[in-house]
From TrEMBL:
Functional note: Catalyzes the formation of CDP-2,3-bis-(O-geranylgeranyl)-sn-glycerol (CDP-archaeol) from 2,3-bis-(O-geranylgeranyl)-sn-glycerol 1-phosphate (DGGGP) and CTP. This reaction is the third ether-bond-formation step in the biosynthesis of archaeal membrane lipids.
Naturally occurring in which organism (per UniProt): Halolamina litorea
Molecular function, one GO term: CDP-2,3-bis-(O-geranylgeranyl)-sn-glycerol synthase activity
Gene this protein is translated from: carS
EC main group: transferase
Protein name stated in the entry: CDP-archaeol synthase
């Protein structure tokens, strides 16, 4: 049980951190450059080049740190923890950011303004993006690492973690909405 839950969260950490790093680093030019589609912003001011670049870089850096720490951390817990080849690291981190950007595209098309909540999509967009891009960039690693059991753990635990971290970020005043 510990192996299943710890392994799932460990494998997903490089996808969890980019969105939070983007919140801290955000600002500057929006990716859509202000462009609109049917009168609505393509993505909106909440998706910036700087947030995306910093978020991705932080996620990749974390994956490489976890890769180096996996053997010792696994030994300490008496379990095996996954390492991260660079293609998997980039797939997870960039995929998380792209999933979040894709969700903003969907939100704008459905008439939701920047910052509006979209329950379900908000909590899982980055997980789906991360897994899809990891599958494209590192197919063997992804199939080996994200067993059905780990994916199930991620699907249950991620929304809880996401809600928790965003409420904390809101309390700390670094995020405008608690979602
Ligand atoms: N952010 C960013 N670039 C990204 C993602 C996030 O700069 N690719 C920053 C922005 O400052 C954004 C904040 O992180 O406002 C919070 O992210 P998020 O909740 O995803 O964006 P929202 O502002 O809520 O916009 P949206 O409705 O499009 O999700
Ligand atoms: Mg938001
Ligand atoms: K979001």
């Amino acid at each position: 049980m510990l192996e299943l839950i710890a392994g799932a969260l460990w494998a997903m950490l490089p996808a969890y951190v980019p969105n939070n790093a983007a919140v801290l680093a955000g600002g500057g030019r929006p990716i859509d450059g202000g462009r609109t589609m049917n009168g609505k912003r393509l993505l909106g001011d909440g998706k910036t080049w700087r947030g995306t670049a910093v978020g991705t870089a932080v996620g990749v850096a974390l994956a490489l740190l976890l890769d180096a720490a996996a053997p010792a951390a696994g030994d300490a817990l008496g379990i095996t923890l996954p390492g991260f080849p660079i293609n998997a690291a980039v797939g997870l981190a960039l995929g998380a950011m792209l999933g979040d950007i894709g969700a903003s595209f969907i939100k704008r098309r459905s008439g939701r303004e920047r910052g509006a909540a979209f329950p379900g999509l908000d909590q899982l967009d980055f997980v789906v993006g991360a897994l899809v891009l990891a599958l494209l960039f590192a197919p063997d690693w992804t199939l080996e690492t994200f067993t059905l059991g780990r994916v199930a753990v991620v699907a249950v635990v991620t929304p809880l973690l996401h809600v928790g971290t965003n409420v904390i970020a809101y309390w700390l005043g670094v995020k405008d909405e608690p979602w």
